[in-house]
Amino acid sequence: MDGSTTADLPLTRVARRKEKTRRVLLEVALGLFYEKGIYWTKIEDITERADVGKGTFYQYFGTKEDLLAELLKRGLAQLLMRTKEAIRVVRPGPELIKKIVEARLDFFVENPEYLLLFHQIRGLLQLRTDSSKELREIYIAHLDRLGELVRPALKGGAKKGPSARDFSVALAAFTSGLLTYHLLFGKADNFKHRRTAIADQLEQSLRALN
Fold first, then answer.
1. Mean pLDDT of successive 10-residue segments in the chain (210 residues)?
2. Is 209 in a helix, a strand, or coil?
3. Residues 6+ apart with CB under 8 A from 84
4. Pair (102, 42) in one structural domain
5. Roughly how many angstroms between the first and final C-alpha of the chain, as a whole number?
6. N or C, where is the chain less crowded by C-beta within 10 Å?
7. Cα–Cα–Cα angle for 55, 57, 58, nearest 5°?
8. Residues 50, 135: one domain?
9. If you write DSSP's letter for every residue of 20-51 in order, what string do you get?
10. How far is Cα 18 from Cα 38, in angstroms, rounded to an integer?
11. What range defines the domain where residue 175 resides?
């Protein structure tokens, strides 16, 4: 016996159902943002495709910007985890740069919806609103964590040359910027086939900063 009672079971089912609804709203929104963009997607579009009432949306998110913040957190967390896994057994040094670039590149190749989401959110960061402040803080926290992963790859542990934070900014900007260009103006198949060439181009650009 684990101490639970039958009275606990309905609450467990309710919690699972709520989590499922929240996940569906996030997944549907991510798909719509990829198709229509964050500016043109309305809450009504999300609830209609998720097959829930508009009131249900507000049980989970106060605004569309709150949902964007949650997607940004989730996407960046997945990206960081992918990066950590890629360098787990790599020794400190320049080889880290290559592995980090490849990890981020592979993540975006497999998840182009996040690539475009991050690209669109960076546009919002230029605004001086409460919602953009929250998004900016989420992104800054990611850059700080990325900087810690990058630090062992820098000459002299970043005592000379660019700081780990500066390098992480360049890494994020170079990777997502170049890939967004390829995704928007190229063909998806070519995007995947040119993965190695794109990775080499990014690595060479970043090494020049180190």
1. 50 84 96 95 97 95 95 97 93 84 89 92 80 89 93 67 80 82 68 70 68
2. coil
3. 149
4. no
5. 59
6. N
7. 70
8. no
9. HHHHHHHHHHHHHHHHH-TTT--HHHHHHHHT
10. 24
11. 64-207
